[in-house]
Amino acid sequence: CFEQRRVMGKGGMSQGEGSKVEEENMAAWLVGLNTLKIQPFPLPSLGPHDVRVRMKAVGICGSDVHYLKTMRCADFIVKEPMVIGHECAGIIEEVGEEVKHLVVGDRVALEPGISCWRCNLCKEGRYNLCPEMKFFATPPVHGSLANQVVHPADLCFKLPENVSLEEGAMCEPLSVGVHACRRAEVGPETNVLVMGAGPIGLVTMLAARAFGVPRIVIVDVDDNRLSVAKQLGADGIVKVTTSLENLEVDVVGVFRYKNTWPLCLEFLTSGKIDVKPLITHRFGFSQKEVEDAFETSARGSNAIKVMFNL
């Protein structure tokens, strides 16, 4: 249960009758197993290098669903109420005094992880592995399914005019595919097999094509997702079972991503990647719609990417 906070004016005084009352910031809180509640979400003060962003598009990730259904994702455990969501884009409403590259009204996609920039991994440029990473909606850090958030300006990327806010929000899952292609060193002389035609498998397929891969085969256990993969340009689709034996593979791990937003936006702007067909369901930001959206995403079936329009 969260106490409703009274809106205060400058100097901590209540705003008088007839004056403009500021809108209370609301967010979708994960408050318990299978329980989401839209509750007040007080914002931190704006630092000199921060921006305040009004969220316009937020996608649901598989990790969000895991947190809802099990209160954990791998070793990350939800121990207290947490605002959910991390795939997001919005419009700048306020900038810190030291922010020079963004102005009020800019449309931006947000990279959700704030690294320390002091550890050895950060200094080596592998900031995605920072042990002190503060990542949207990864306990105990709050996420971005809210009316507004405050975020470092250097992690907000201005959207080109021909890239929509929904496409901006899709830069986060697309970044996983881009990072995977970089790690696998794919290119025009590489054929690619993608294991799984869920959202990440599909964006990895799209990224591989943008990297110049000539032939891509994708496998899954679900006919519908394989059909979508075929429509999106897979050269071959294979339905498999979970009882396959003797696939000899070398595994290179991928954890999040690094320095991917500029390339993602370049791919979207140029038309080398079209993520719009992946967005299969859209919902508004009401209590019922939040619940319905997560249930739709959790069911899978014909849902690929479920998007909130705030």
Give a quick rundown of the structure:
With 310 residues, the protein is of the alpha+beta class. Helix content is 25%, strand content 25%.
Give an account of the 3D structure:
The protein is of the alpha+beta class and 310 residues long. 25% of the residues lie in helices and 25% in strands. It is built from eight helices and 17 strands. The strands form five sheets. Strands 3, 7, 8, 11, 12, 16 and 17 form a seven-stranded mixed sheet that branches. Helix 4 crosses helix 5. The longest helix has 14 residues. The chain is globular and about 60 Å long. The N terminus is likely disordered. Its cofactor is Zn(2+). Belongs to the zinc-containing alcohol dehydrogenase family. It comes from Brassica napus. This is Enoyl reductase (ER) domain-containing protein. InterPro entries: ADH-like_N, ADH_Zn_CS, ER, GroES-like_sf, NAD(P)-bd_dom_sf, SDH-like.
Counted beta strands? 17
Distance between the termini: 24 Å
The percentage helix is 10-25%
Biggest β-sheet: count, sense, barrel?
A: 7 strands, mixed
Radius of gyration: 20 Å
- The rough form would be described as globular
The chain-level mean pLDDT equals: 91
Low-confidence stretches: 1-21
Strand percentage, roughly? 25-35%
Total DSSP helices: 8
One letter per element, helices H and strands E, the order comes to EEEHEEEEEEHEEEHHEHEHEHEHE
User: How would you classify the quaternary structure?
Assistant: single chain
Protein name: Enoyl reductase (ER) domain-containing protein
Family: Belongs to the zinc-containing alcohol dehydrogenase family.
InterPro entries: ADH-like_N, ADH_Zn_CS, ER, GroES-like_sf, NAD(P)-bd_dom_sf, SDH-like
Cofactor: Zn(2+)
